[in-house]
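Lecture 7 notes: from sequence to structure.

We start with a single chain of 273 residues. Read the sequence below before looking at the structure.
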Amino acid sequence: MALMHVNFFSDVLGMSMDMDVILPQQTKGQIGMEGKAESGQYKTMYLLHGMSDDQTTWQRRTSIERYVSKLGIAVVMPTTHLGFYTDTVYGMRYWTFISEELPCICREFFPRMSQRKEDTLAAGLSMGGYGAWKLGLRASDTFGAAASLSGALDIVEDYKRNVKEQTRVLPLFQGIFGSETDLEGSDNDIFALADKLAASAAAEEELPRLYAWCGTQDFLYEGNIRAWKHVKKLGYDLTCSESEGDHQWKYWDEKIKDVLCWWLDTDVDLDLD
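Now the structure, written as tokens:
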């Protein structure tokens, strides 16, 4: 595999941004790892970070590069700061950046990245899980599938909880989403997005495939259950699971392998010897 650290300018955000990109490379001489690459276009996973993280975190806390070395896919890991993948009230257009500008930039820089939605996955954890499902539901022409690990999928209830408890996160939410009333039913509300897309899709094939996992001790667990029930009721192709666990990396490192196998429909053993 090739790992690239890319600093580039975003016209949408008006500032320099960073992303780390893993590209397939056919190798046989690496000790402990053999890389796989095929001719043609690469399937691409956009792998999103959580609130406390940046573009480096998936590499630092998981073995993502070794997992995908067996699969021959590209991985894009962008930084999006604490913007919740949203065009914020305070004026930063993180949604437009992640959903429109970034895929265009990546495909310009790396022309072998496929432009087919069937070959493009959005995945992430926590805040990034919210961002991933939002990409699947609101930018389904680009992202044919979306996977959430411990995602903040019921963002409206999360907002209400922060209001009730007057947490330190509340001013951040207000700057991003506006008021509670502004958020509920908007294009930043996963439930409303799922309703809108299901109502407008001419056939089930037009709906994105969805995946989710959450630990039963996670503070976001109840919100996940509500979101899963909602999209199932609307007819989405959802693969979801729960197991013992809370909000930490030892679970996400393990579950990202399940995401990859689900998306690629493969039974390749991604466990490391």
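The first helix runs from residue 57 to 61. Keep this in mind for problem set 3.
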